[in-house]
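User: My advisor, Dr. K., asked me to get a structural model of this assembly before our group meeting. I'm new to this, so sorry if the format is off. These are the inputs:
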Amino acid sequence: MRLDLDLPAGLDLIVDPDVLAGLSHDDAEWAPYGTALAAVRPTNTAEVRRVVAACAARRIPIVPRGAGTGLSGGANAVDGAMILDLSRMNRIVEIDAENMTATVQPGVVNDDLKAAVAAHGLWYPPDPASAPWSTIGGNVSTNAGGLCCLKYGVTRDYVLGLEAVVGGPAGEYGTAVRLGRRTTKGVSGYDLAGLFTGSEGTFGVITEVTLRLRPARREAPRTVVGAFGSVVAAGEAVAAITRAGLLPAALELLDRTCLRAVEDWKHLGLADDAAALLLAQLDTPGLAGDEEATAVADVFRTAGALWSEQSTDEVEAEALFAARRLAYPALERLGPVLTEDVCVPRSRVPEMLSSIERIADRNGITIATIAHAGDGNLHPLILAPAGDDSARQAAQAAFEEILTAAIAMGGTVTGEHGVGLLKRAGMRQELSAGVLAMQVAVKQTLDPLNLFNPGKVVG
Amino acid sequence: MRLDLDLPAGLDLIVDPDVLAGLSHDDAEWAPYGTALAAVRPTNTAEVRRVVAACAARRIPIVPRGAGTGLSGGANAVDGAMILDLSRMNRIVEIDAENMTATVQPGVVNDDLKAAVAAHGLWYPPDPASAPWSTIGGNVSTNAGGLCCLKYGVTRDYVLGLEAVVGGPAGEYGTAVRLGRRTTKGVSGYDLAGLFTGSEGTFGVITEVTLRLRPARREAPRTVVGAFGSVVAAGEAVAAITRAGLLPAALELLDRTCLRAVEDWKHLGLADDAAALLLAQLDTPGLAGDEEATAVADVFRTAGALWSEQSTDEVEAEALFAARRLAYPALERLGPVLTEDVCVPRSRVPEMLSSIERIADRNGITIATIAHAGDGNLHPLILAPAGDDSARQAAQAAFEEILTAAIAMGGTVTGEHGVGLLKRAGMRQELSAGVLAMQVAVKQTLDPLNLFNPGKVVG
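Assistant: The format is fine. Below is the predicted structure of the whole assembly, which you can bring to the meeting.
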C-alpha cells in the first residue's frame, strides 16, 4: 500500500494497526491520541524531505517522534497523521574533539552519545532521567533538562546548530535548512536554532544537531546524602544551599514513596526510614570539592537533617542516583502515574512542597515527589490505581491544582517536559494573551499549512 | 516643540541637532546614519509604551539605544526616526540572592550590575570589553559575549526573562509583554525571550530583564602568560589548549600592535617584545586550579612559546587583562578603527590568523588583532589614517575579505557584536536564502509596520 504518496523507493510504509498504535503516543498518562494514517522510519535527511513534501502535497499532518519517552503527549498522533519515526536516524555523524562538538542524527540515544564522546575525553552534560532511552532529537525538541542543570544548564545551552526540514518562508515543504552555527559564539541573524529548540516538532523536522561538549570531568563527583523528617524540611535545606553560595552539580530530592517503590523493585539496600532524602553531587575537583561536600553536609545538618553524610563509597553513591533515575519506572509499575513538571523559584520549593501535600490530601490521593530540587523543578508523581475512574479524575484535578499553585509562586507549568498536550491549558493560564498571540503568530509564520505536529504547544 | 505627538507630560523631546547627532550612532566606524526627528529619554515602561504608541500612530520609526558602544551600527538612526535613549532607565529593580537572579532596567551598566550583585556574594559573568560603559539592554540586544564565554557562556545564557514593549500580534504598538520566566528551567511555549536576545531592538523595546547569576568566585583566578614569535604560533597554542582538555575561564590573544598602543597610552610596563601574547585565566579553585595553570604554561611551552609563566603577582595579572580591555580604545586614539568580529571553530584559529595577515599585506594596511582566542572569536582591528580615502577603501575591502575567509572556514561573520548595518552583507553571504527568508518572515510577523529599528539585521 502506497497511499498514493510519492515516497522514496526503499522506505516502507507502516500501516499495521498494532505497530501504528504503539507509535502513536508517548509515555504521558491519559494524554489523548488519534489514529494515524501510517508511519515511516527514514534513515536520512533526503528521505525526510521526500516524506514531508509528499505529505504536504496531500495536506497530511506530520508527527515526528524519537523514542517516545516524552511525558506531555508531544509525540502523540492526530487522526490521519503520518508518523515520522526518527529512531533509525541514529548515526553519530562527527565527533570533533578539537572543537569540542558533536554532530548527530536526531535518533541518537542520549547515553549513546555520552559514551561515544567520553571515548574522546569529552562530556555531553544534559542528563534527563530518560537518558538511557531518549533521543537527542526528542531532547532538543523538548529542551530537555535533567539532573545537572543547576550548574551545567539544559539542552538549549548545548545546541549550536541544527538541520531541519521545513516549509513556509524557506520554500516548499520539504526544504532543508541549516540554522545556527558550529562556532562557540555567533549572532548572525535571529536565533532560529534556539527557537526550534523546545518547539516540539511544530516548526519542522530536526534531521541533524550540532552540540557543544565539555571536557570530561577529571574525577568522580562527591555525593552527600541528607535524610529529613519531612519533604518540607528537605525543601528548606535546598533553599539554605543556595543561600550558602554553594553550586552542586546536582541536588535531588526523593520522598519515601519513591524510595520504597525503587527498593521493592530493585532491592538496592537503600535507607528508607526518612520522609525525604536529598542527594547532592559536587564536582569541583580536588580539595576544594571535598570542602564543598563538607559544607553541603553541614548545611543539611543545620537545616535539621536527621542525619547527613558524605558518601565515600562510590558504589553506594551510584546506587542512590540510580534510585533517583529509577523512581519513575518503579512507580509506573504500580499503576498509572501522572507526571508533573512544575518549576518554581528555588526559595519557594518548601512552600511548593507543602502545597503539593495539601493538594494530595484534599483530593484523597497519593503524590510521590521526586525533584531536581536545586533547580526548583519538581516532579510530583500523581498515582492512581488502574481502572479506578474516580481516582483518575481526582488525579487530573490535582494535576491542574499543582499547575495553578506553581504559577501563583512565580513558577512555570513545565520546567523540562514540554507543553505537548497535557500542559496546554496550564500554559494558557501562565502566559498572557499577548504572549500567546505572539506564539501563535510565529507558528503560523513558520508552518503556514499547520502540518508539523499540529495541536501541540499552541494548538 | 511636541511634533504633535501624544507624549507623557514630563518627557522632554530632544531636538537640538548637536545632541541628536551624538545620539544618532554607535561606535561603528563608517557605518551610515540618518537624521533623526527627535530623541526621548524615558525612565519607565509606561513612558516607553506611550512613546511607542505615539510613534506608531504617526508611523515614525523607533531606534532604541543604550550607551552607544555598539560596533556594528545597530543603534544608528534612520532618517525621521525617534531615538529612544534608554540610558536613564538604569535602575536595578531587584537582586534576589535566594534565587540568584537580578531584575534590571535596560540602561543599567554591566559593571554596575556586577558590583551590585557582588555585594550579595553573586556574580554576573558576561564581560564584554565595554562592560564599564555598555548597558544590559544593549548587551541583551546584541547577545554580547566577552572574555569568559568559553567556560561561562554569553549573555543569552543568563537571560531568563524580559519585558518588552511590542506591537503586532500581541496587540497595539505600545503593548508591554513579559517573555520567558524567573525560574532556572522553563519550556512553557516557544522561547521568545531567547528570540529577542540578539535581535538588536528589531522586535520591540526591552524595558526590563531578569538575569541568572552565579555564586561569586571564591578566589582570584590564576593568570598564565605566554609570549609567541608570531600570532600564528599563538593560534597553534590555542588549539593545543583545547586538545589538552583544558577549559580556561578566559584565553585571550593580543598582538604586538595592540600591546604597543596600550603601552604608549597607559604606560603599564608591559612586555612588548613578542609578536603575540596569550593570556589565560584559570578559575578552578584550590590546588586543582594551580595544576591547571601549570598545565596551560606547559602547553604554551610545548607549542613553542618564547617564554611562558604563571603570574603570581595579582597586580601584574590585572594589568595584563587591563591591556586587553584597553586595546580597542588605545588603537582608536590613533585613528579610525574598523572592528571585525569573526568567529571560527577553535581549530581553525591559526589558519584564520594567517589569512588575516595575508589580507593585510594584500591590501597594504595594518591590522592589529585582539581575540577571544579560546572561543575562536577574533577581533582584527583594521586601522586607517584619518582622512585618507584610499586607506579607508582598502580597510573596507579587507573587512569584507575577512568575512569571506571566516565563512569559508565554517565560521560566522559576527561572534558577539551583532549584524547591525556593517554585517548585513556578510550575513547574506553566510546564511542560505531559505534561512534569510525565515528571518525576514519572523521580523514581519512580530513587527508588521517595520517600526522597530528598521533596516537592522534583516533590513
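One thing worth pointing out at the meeting: Chain A has a mean pLDDT of 94.

User: Perfect, thanks a lot.
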